[in-house]
Amino acid sequence: MSLQLKIKKGLDLELAGKVESDKVEKVVIPDHIAIFPDDFPGLTPKLNIKEGDPIRKGQPLFHDKVHEEMNVVSPVTGTIKEIVRGERRKIIRIVIAVDQQNYDKGISQSVNPTDDESVIKLLMQSGMWVIMRQLPFGIIPDPQVRPRDIFIAGFDSSPLAPDFDVLLKDKVNLIVAGVELLNHLTDGKVYVTRRRGSRMPDIPGAEMIDIDGPHPAGNIGTAIANIAPVNKGEVVWTLSTITAARIGTMIRSGAIAPTSLVAVTGSEVKHPEFIRTLVGAPLKAILEGNLKDDDRHKRYISGNLLTGINVGPEGYIRWPFYQVTVIPEGDDVAEFMGWASLSPSKMSVSRSFPGHFLHRLFSPDARIKGGRRAMIMSGEYESVMPMDILPEYLIKAILSKDIDNMEKLGIYEVIPEDFALAEYVDTSKLELQKIVAEGLEYLRKETE
Fold first, then answer.
1. Per-domain residue ranges for the chain?
2. What pTM does this model have?
3. Which residues of 316-329 are buried (b: 16+ CB within 10 A; e: fewer)?
4. Of 359 and 205, which is predicted with more confidence?
């Protein structure tokens, strides 16, 4: 019997540009891809390759300086085209020219884990370890720390997020294999969330959590906070069922899956659709011929509107590799009365605007609609955060770098995405996700 969880606090944003069809009508194999070390927080990269080197699918691109067996591997076979560096020679991205004919041929792992140590070694060497995360801190798990529990997110409730029933169609057996392996790594439980009414069946070896309610119902932090909160000194691991399926693929075949099913979404997309493409593919290849010809400046986001990364038209799909969103930038608009306009097309959570009462699909742009101002203790954050914390006081503790109060107010339970919706409704226009990320990094360095 599954656990039942009803989420009451939250907010669903009704936006234009969602993929309505569950058909995959296009496969795009680009001529190059890019991998970004910043997508793997907690890892200090040390290169295994140099420009011009041939690379095979599954071969390490770089490894962690501390845990040398922890690899980030190439998802394709090809050639190292470019290693882009920034200040202090920081690695920004590794660009790989794809071998169009043989991109899926590469290294196969010998998969025969007999104990916990061999399971950890397999996941680290195959590149599967780095796509998991741990709480606290939202970083790659420490292989020397055994988790209390493992939580697996089985759906995404973010704006325009794709339906996992489509992304994981015919992959239940791979999820089962992944869960079976993960059970070796915890003495506690493996939990799998799913939207109530989902087609996902019960997964053997996992405790199922049926969740109903508005966003952030799909955030794994919401499930953890309501089922088994993280206390000081405890560690839990998190991943998605997509990642579990990737682990299952590696278990069953000995090789990693080079492709990802990507939802192309947003109001500036002509035909929102699912596209199968390579991990790390350039947005240009995915969006070619599918953007509206309206001469508006556009924002290109890898991910969803609340937590995604603004990568620009020359950007790439970033981790977790399953959604791209394109909306108007808004810097080319001269709107009468600006943010105070009472236009019914303006989306707002405030009852002061007509759009609040209209049941329609909105097409917002990227403007913040108002200036940044001092923090207002209004209770706005609590209204959309179904967690037993005091978010406004926690933000103040983070800003003042008060570690004692940060711990008392629940810093170990949260990651930046838990504050994404609060950031949207915040009349103070604070960059809450950035504040939380910096607070977690500060706390991690101070407590190491």
1. 3-253, 380-447
2. 0.93
3. bbbbbbbbbbbbbb
4. 205
